[in-house]
Amino acid sequence: MELIIASNPDPDSRLPYLLWVPLGQGLVFRTSGTWPRTKALYCHAVSAAEWPGEPEVVERIELQSCIRRGAAVDVVAARSRENRSQLVYTTARGRDVVFWQSARTRKQARPGVRTPAARAAGIVELPIVIDSRERYAYDFAGKSVRTARRVLPCGDYGLVVDDRLAAAVERKSLSDFTSSLLSGRLKYQLTELAGLPRAAVVVEDRYSQIYTGTHAKPATVADAIAEVQIAFPNVPVVFCDTRKLAQEYTYRYLAACQSWFSSNTDIAARLGDDHELAAAPAQPGPSTAEVRAWARENGFGVPARGRLRPEVWSAWSAAHRS
Hints:
Distance between the termini: 41 Å
Number of strands: 14
Strand content: 25-35%
Radius of gyration: 22 Å
Number of helices: 8
Shape: globular
């Protein structure tokens, strides 16, 4: 049993993918993404006849189960992470709609608070540099922000002064934070962040959630958090409940850093060569799904899932070098 995601052949549609759900004779939707990782995805239900005879498959996801439960379809993928999601039938502005969501995106969509619209530190347009390796970056929608992509020596979001990294925020999901903490990788990242005048780590979940984990003893995780905070007191670790609130904290933290640097110009003058930014492409690299779709359009034989051969990546790079 598989859930199939294919490219939408309709060039006029704003929803780039078709989703085939193995329920009954098959349900077909137009949708905006391949899995609800960072936000709920809007889906437009269409007839099964719209599914192409020879679809351009982007991804096949093996399923453990796919069951209709009232106004929702529960989908459980046969993998350990990002495995549970729902297709929820609801109404919005008087019309029937479908949203594809996971438990995480549902919680993050309704954090129970409304973030303020006021400009952080009164800055008209805050320049934020996003690490080009950050796959699901914050968009800072509704904020007075101008973003650019560069390779950052540390952190995922940074403030640049005279082409040197002056402040940074490292973003972590709770699972990534826990695994990097216990593996020791986080200590290397904190060592790099501690070399900046200002830096922070933001976790997209509540602190209380570390006590509900099943892959590591909660006491071990809690002790490790306390230890890194003692070892790196100038790099705070901030738990922000949801991705939306973590984005809000990142925006206001970097705005406060900008204001602080404006008042302490001697700090910026002491930034050394270690803070210099390397040249980087203006946009992040493509996803495997994007390269897979391009390869098929250009006559390369590629599998429906799994890794792509190095020559396929090389061909993509050569074709997009300009």
